[in-house]
C-alpha cells in the first residue's frame, strides 16, 4: 500500500461516494468502498488489519445503519477513527455514535470529510 492509509468508506449514494473518494485519494488515502452496511461489515471482518479509518453514512437503506457499522468496527479495533456522515441524524450522534468520533452534516464539501478523518488520524496516533 506504499505507506498510505486505507479508509473504508460506506455510502449508498454513488455520486456522493465518488466525489468524496476522489478527495480522499487526492489527500493521500487509499479507499475501500462499500455501498451498504452489510458490505461494510463484511469488509471490516475481512480486512480490519488493513483498515486505518472508517467513514460511514448513517442511513444506507435496508440493513445495518452507520451506527451499527461503527460499533462493529470498534468491536474489532477499539481505536479505529470513525467519521459519520448524515443528512438527518446528526442529533442522534451523542446517543448512537461511538466515542471519539466525528459527524459531518450533509450536504458537505468533500474537503470536510478529508479534514474530519485526517484530524482523527492525528488524535489517534
Automatic annotation (TrEMBL):
This is Response regulator. The keyword Membrane does not apply. It comes from Sphingomonas tagetis. Keywords: Phosphoprotein. GO terms for biological process: phosphorelay signal transduction system. The modification 4-aspartylphosphate is found at residue 57. The keyword Phosphoprotein applies. It comes from the Bacteria. Residues 6-121 form the Response regulatory domain.
Amino acid at each position: 500500500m506504499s505507506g498510505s492509509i486505507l479508509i473504508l468508506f460506506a455510502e449508498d449514494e454513488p455520486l456522493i461516494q465518488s466525489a468524496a473518494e476522489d478527495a480522499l485519494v487526492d489527500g493521500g488515502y487509499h479507499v475501500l468502498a462499500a455501498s451498504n452496511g452489510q458490505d461494510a461489515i463484511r469488509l471490516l471482518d475481512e480486512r480490519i488489519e488493513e483498515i486505518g479509518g472508517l467513514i460511514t453514512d448513517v442511513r444506507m437503506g435496508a440493513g445495518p445503519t452507520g451506527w451499527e457499522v461503527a460499533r462493529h468496527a470498534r468491536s474489532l479495533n477499539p481505536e479505529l477513527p470513525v467519521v459519520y456522515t448524515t443528512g438527518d441524524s446528526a442529533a442522534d450522534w451523542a446517543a448512537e455514535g461511538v466515542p471519539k468520533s466525528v459527524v459531518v452534516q450533509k450536504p458537505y464539501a468533500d474537503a470536510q470529510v478529508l479534514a474530519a478523518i485526517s484530524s482523527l488520524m492525528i488524535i489517534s496516533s
